[in-house]
Amino acid sequence: MALSREQLAQRVAQELQDGYYVNLGIGIPTLVANYIPHGIEVMLQSENGLLGMGQFPTEEEIDADLINAGKQTVTMATGAAIFDSAESFAMIRGGHVDLTVLGAFEVDTQGNIASYMIPGKLIKGMGGAMDLVAGADNIIVTMTHASKHGVSKLLTKCTLPLTGKACIKRVLTDLALMEIKQDKFHLIERAPGVSIEEIITLTAGEIVVPEHVPEMFFQT
Fold first, then answer.
1. Do 2 and 174 form a contact (C-beta atoms < 8 A)?
2. Structurally, how many domains does the chain consist of?
């Protein structure tokens, strides 16, 4: 069974380590803030100038002036800081973000990512993604494996305008976790109940499948 948006966020949250500075992109990545594992502390960074984002607010906590890069209202964790976007991008461009989580429209076997434009459609645009993919070494892309029409988003070569080249090493989809190396997708984990055959069928780029592919584990 394909993973929900919340399950994707939970799986990404398993990659967090104590002391990390983390940037969460627009869409599914923002949900990671709700699933930070107990016992670790991370500082969530937003390119509009907030370091130390907390979980999404309850109705009583909503402050319309406190937003993330996607214009969603957020909370601030203990020790949070607010500064201008120039300082925020200096942090990103200087390589001071330990983990970046981004959404995407397409990813290919060379590690290229297309995430900001679909010709003829109204999309939010580039935002800080171009700086994030250039300034971060540790990037996880989370996305659906295929479109609603069953067209693969994991390609041999991206068809949409690129956000960054040769910068993506790991992709988490609603079907699988994959690593990109040697111009191939390497299957690491599969979603519970999802068959390897389904993953292969919906992956347009070349895929390497090991003898044993474990199912993802989610704590209940």
1. yes
2. 1
147 residue type, one letter: S
Tell me the two tokens of residue 131. 């700086």
Task: Decide if 217 is inside a domain.
Answer: no
Catalytic residues: 47
Q: Is residue 218 part of a domain?
A: no
Q: Which two tokens stand for residue 8?
A: 């994707």
For residue 162, what are the CA distances in angstroms to 20, 95, 126, 129, 157? 27, 21, 10, 11, 10
pLDDT digits (tens, 9 = 90+) for 142-155: 999 999 999 999 99
Question: Do 122 and 175 touch, CB atoms closer than 8 A?
Answer: no
Report pLDDT for 137.
85
Which residues contact residue 183 at a Cβ distance below 8 angstroms, ignoring those fewer than 6 apart? 109, 110, 206
- pTM, entire model: 0.91
How many CB atoms neighbour CB 117 within 10 A?
16
